[in-house]
Design goal:
This is Type II toxin-antitoxin system VapB family antitoxin. The structure is a single chain. A six-stranded mixed sheet has the order 1-3-5-4-6-2. It has 99 residues and is an alpha/beta fold. It is built from three helices and six strands, in the order E-H-E-E-H-E-E-H-E. The chain is 18% helix and 30% strand. It has a single domain, classed as Alpha-Beta Complex (Conserved hypothetical protein from pyrococcus furiosus pfu- 392566-001, ParB domain). Strand 4 and strand 5 form a beta hairpin.
Length: 99
């Protein structure tokens, strides 16, 4: 199993971080793939295979920590690429939301 679970929605409240500039203030840290719950059930194969997939976006995936669960909000293609390289950890921006 690559991820803790595969979800298809964002169960946490809106956090207001939309653009890469919004996320830039969130420092990246190491996250284990096995601790992540995805918020998308389908992967865009073009995004996975594109050589320049991070050229216009953030270098780090976006993760939301809510109620002690880590949700992979953006960067599913990067996380899958990490797993395909047989790595279990990736660097991601982790936004902590408190209830």
């Amino acid at each position: 199993m690559i991820f803790k679970a595969v979800g298809d929605n964002r169960p946490y409240p809106d956090h207001g971080h939309v653009t890469p500039k919004d996320w830039a203030g969130v420092p990246p840290r190491q996250v284990r793939l096995a601790e992540l719950v995805t918020t998308k059930a389908k992967l865009d194969l073009e995004a996975l295979l594109a050589e320049d997939s991070t050229f216009f976006g953030d270098l780090f995936p976006h993760v939301v920590q809510w109620r002690d669960t880590l949700y992979l909000e953006d960067g599913l293609h990067r996380a899958v690429r990490t797993a395909l390289h047989q790595r279990t950890i990736l660097h991601a921006r982790v936004l902590v939301i408190d209830d």
